[in-house]
Amino acid sequence: MKGKNLNTKNKSTKASEKKNCIKCLKDKEKVADFYISYSKLHADGRVPICKECLAEMFDINDPENSLIEILRQVDKPFVYDVYVTSKQENPNNIFGKYMKNIVMHQYKGMTWKDSVFSNNNHGEVIVDESELKVIVPDKDDFSLDQSIINFWGSGYTKEQYRKLQNFKEEMESSYEIETASHKDYLKKICIVSLKMEDALAKDDIGNFKKLSDAYDSLMHSAKFTAVQRSAADRTGGLNTFGEFFEFIEKEGFIPKYHVDEPQDIVDETIQNLMKYTKNLVLGDPNIANIVEATINKINNNEDEESNEDSNDIIIEDTEDEDLEYEDS
Q1: Which of 77, 150, 165, 217 is 20 to 30 A removed from 232 (C-alpha atoms)?
Q2: Residues sharing a CB contact under 8 Å with residue 208, sequence separation 6 or more, in sequence order
Q3: If you average pLDDT over each of 95-104, 127-136, 200-209, 265-274, which comes out highest?
């Protein structure tokens, strides 16, 4: 009887053990509120995000891709057949049903690396590009084929493959990637760059700093040589002043402005003032007489000043002659 009571007490203590959710930061029941995990990263055997937060992360409008992303973050396996079964059994709660089905004995010990995105009934895992796509902008010109998956490896979403490919192409256009060593370094640099972005999105600053150091170390060790570009490449194909002037003469450099737009109140006011001034000057005959009289007066004043200057010169000349006569 005592042994039975002790066993009951241990079960009760284990059930009431608390665990802190890293997303909502709340203390919850470890057994009841957290899913079982077989990941080496989860020492206590439980997923670090509570069931409630994981359910809120699930997007019912994009169930498959949403489920894949959540499972990747918590290191749980995605098994396509289980997903299809869960969707059929409970279309209103696909995530909850999947998490319940994935803990069955045949999936015990599986983590994200054991994911099966599609199965051909022969035990061979096939990664179908249609199973990896995520929500992207309407204009999606990125084509994910098997060669890209083979190069980077499986387990990424379509958006992640896009980022890896885009960064790889940008690096190839910026540096001379020729040797096998260069290509290997480039692949590692692209993957680390993707992980840096993911760590930054999760506010995992500690991991981001480690990845940043690794990124800098890889770039330094790779010793990439920048692609040599000519002056014409840097100036858009214009290599001399003659080519530049020819382009200007051909294309023009004065921007064209539209003048047929409706005028606002400021333009109308300016035009009204101009018309008023024009009518005031040209429409009043007295204005012309006043202007003419003013001009004549100015001319007369100039003539009088000129005559005074001439008289002063004559007087000075006379005085000079008188002085010369007295000296003689």
Answers
A1: 165
A2: 196, 199, 200
A3: 95-104
